[in-house]
Amino acid sequence: MRSAAREFGGRFAAHLLVLSLLPGTLARTEAAPPQDSPPRFRAESELVLVDLVATDGKGRFVSDLRQDEIEVLEDGKRRKIQFFRLEQFEPTRDEPGAPPAPATRGRGSVPQGRQGGYVVFLLDLQTMDFNSAERSKEAIREFLRSGMDPGDLAMLVTIRPAVRVDQPFTRNLKKLEVALAQVPYRREEASLEEFAEQVDAIFNRFGVGVPPDVPLDYAEAEAQQYLSNLRTRLDLSCRAISALSRYLGSLPGRKRMLYFSRGYAINAYHRVSEIIQRRKDQLHRGLSRPRMATLSRLNIGSMASIYARSLRSAVDQANRNQVSVYSIDPRGLMVLPFQHSTYFDIGDMEATQEFLATLSEDTGGLLFTNENELGSPIRTAYLDSRSYYLLGYVPDAKLEDGKFRRIEVKVKRKGLKLRYRRGYESVAPERAAQFNLANAFKFPDLYRDFPFRLSVRRQGGQWVVRPLIPNQALTFSDDAGRKRCTLEIFGIPFNASGEPLGENFLFVKVLEMDFSEQELVSFREYKNFGPSLETVMPEDSHDLVVVLRQRRTGKLSAATHTIGTNSNPSK
User: Fold this and answer.
1) Number of C-beta neighbours around residue 562 at 10 A
2) Cα–Cα distances in Å, from 239 out to 100, 298, 303?
3) By the number of CB atoms within 10 A of the CB, which of 94, 204, 213, 338 ranks highest?
4) Environment class of 306 (CB within 10 Å of its CB; exposed 0-12, middle 13-18, buried 19+)
């Protein structure tokens, strides 16, 4: 089963807005009583939780803080701390290379019920050249061999640009090394430096005698293409971090995400404008400027808003799920290459690190740059999450108004450095549900809130799609003496490039399950529930992604089935 990034177009997003209006279908199902889920770090819950790391002047964790020494403010107003606990995890005494914990339930599943730590290695290959990718892989490999606690679980995920879970959580370090070795190199997407070189080539082609507007028109068109591609890559990475954070949310404690990336120039629209203006000024020195430095075709305000919104969404989802992002720039010591555009400077190279800094600082992680030896940042990030304080307070206002609420933590003790989440966005449940459903199609491997098996077979001129769900995976709620569960089933076909085929869902079905107590008892006698859907598939080879959502709980699970031109009709 192939995993690919799902480019979820705007037309599908429009369908998500009207899902609640779709007619329901009465169906009999099998179910189990609602189960308590593990504690989650969610801003929409009654209690807002904050991870606090306090270090002294030498960078050592301070483990003797008292609750009365700590003050928490939300939007400048002091909040009463309702919950306070020191969390510390000691290394285990397990043997290195031990087999995976029994709780691990296969590809894509989140292990439950253990006390060890969790670490995720996320490699954003969209931003890496060959040397950066190899240095990152070698540093991780050395850490696995000598620095990782064998009692912890580790996971490997790559963005290339398809988002792939190369190795689900495991304690088997040899499996991780094999997965790491199989990560392929791909040429990085066009960088700001390459854009500057293209602008050079455009102006050199026209020369001094050409009116300034002529090369400027070509340079602006090049800028539009660069910024459009940047937006796509940045949004994909932010959505991947969001989906991965949600995936980790059911795990206890503070999770570490080690994000290897050059980052993205979130102020690229200004950088691009300045590079073109510098080059134009040099070519037409002394001439009047026909245009302002802010180029006419670049909608700078709109781009800034889009980039900031994508990054804020990733930060907020990480904070909701108690995930701290440790960003590692694998380029090492920042120096300009020997051959580079005269109008590209060190500031342009470092512009991408603002993305990494925001991601780490706002989630309570750390940023590592200008490090030629990547082993030290990995070890520091790994050890950092073993000790922290967990604080909880009741917010002052309703948490569904869509506003960002700023969090500030102070301590009475002097000389301490504090790291914690800087705030959260109070997202309405409807908006969060739409976002998560769209992400489930883009990253099906990261949406496995409950198990189900997907059966797809050809029957005459149609295909029969049947998700088989264990009855205990369905959560029923009490409603005026009735037991109710709403199950939504969605399907979209994607081509080999991860693009949706067609402008509509292949199918959407809503099952309204409404039972009396006795009817539910009778239905529990069945082991599985498997509604069948008949549909017409595209003729070409494609991936069918099926997403199931339990509306009342918001639980989502996705599965992919590859349809080939020679698919066996009996399957």
Assistant:
1) 13
2) 28, 24, 17
3) 94
4) middle
Q: Are strands 323-328 and 255-260 parallel, antiparallel or unpaired?
A: parallel
The whole-number pLDDT of residue 24 equals: 30
Q: Which domain holds residue 73?
A: 53-90+390-425
| Statement to judge: residues 33 and 61 lie in one domain | no
pTM comes to 0.77
Cα dist. 137→147, 227, 356, 379 in Å? Answer: 15, 29, 19, 14
* Category of 113 on φ-ψ map: left (φ > 0), alpha (ψ -120 to 50) or beta: left
Best CA proximity match to 422, nearest among 156, 72, 143, 78: 72
Radius of gyration of the chain (CA): 26
CA distance 146 to 142: 6
Digit-coded pLDDT (tens) for 184-207: 887 767 777 788 888 878 877 776
Contact, 262 vs 233, CB < 8 A? no
More confident of the two residues 11 and 512: 512
Residue 350, in any domain of the structure:
yes
Same domain, 135 and 157: yes
Phi, psi of 535 (to 5 degrees): -150, 165
Question: Is residue 36 classed as helix, strand or coil in its secondary structure?
Answer: coil
Looking at residue 44, what DSSP letter applies? Answer: T
The mean pLDDT of 351-366, rounded to a whole number, is: 90
State the total domains in the chain.
Answer: 3
